[in-house]
Amino acid sequence: MADTTRKTILLIEEDATLREITQFRLELLGHDVFSVASGNEGVLWLTERLPDALMIGHFLPDMDGMDLVDRLSNDVRTAKMPVMLLSPNAELADVQRAFNAGADDYLVTPFDPMMLERKLKRLLAPAGT
Fold it and tell me: Domain Response regulatory, which positions (predicted)?
């Protein structure tokens, strides 16, 4: 069951197919989704507005997604923004590295749509719920 509260999500994902599928799923859940293919495009987008959450791919063409997560978690404007890292790596070390960089959640790709929905619901939940 989708959350009826419409949120704005910025999806930064290098793989066009995964980006389109993820954007489609997020829109089906009732969210406004903006997607870009590179870290620099995402950073530029963030200078204009702030979404309710970020979803960042691990292997961006112009930077490592974990480095971008780290950069955004240390920026006053974006530090409190919920971030999910998308990665094909299921290794515990990679997951831990993402959390250490500042990610709030980690989703292994390709993903089960129901897992995306559950993780997104937690990511967007108000603090303390």
Answer: 8-124
Select from 60, 99, 97 the least CA-distant residue to 82. 99
Structure tokens at 116: 């995306």
The residue among 18, 10, 30 whose CA lies nearest residue 111 is 18
Measure the N-to-C terminal CA separation of the chain; round to a whole number of Å.
18
User: pLDDT for 9-31, tens place per residue?
Assistant: 999 999 999 999 999 999 999 99
Of the candidates 6, 25, 33, the residue with the CA atom closest to the CA atom of residue 107: 25
Q: What percent of the chain has pLDDT over 70?
A: 95
In sequence order, the β-bridge partners of residue 32 are 8
CB 30 within 8 A of CB 6: yes
Q: With respect to CATH, is domain 8-124 assigned 2.70.50.60?
A: no
Tokens of 96: 């831990």
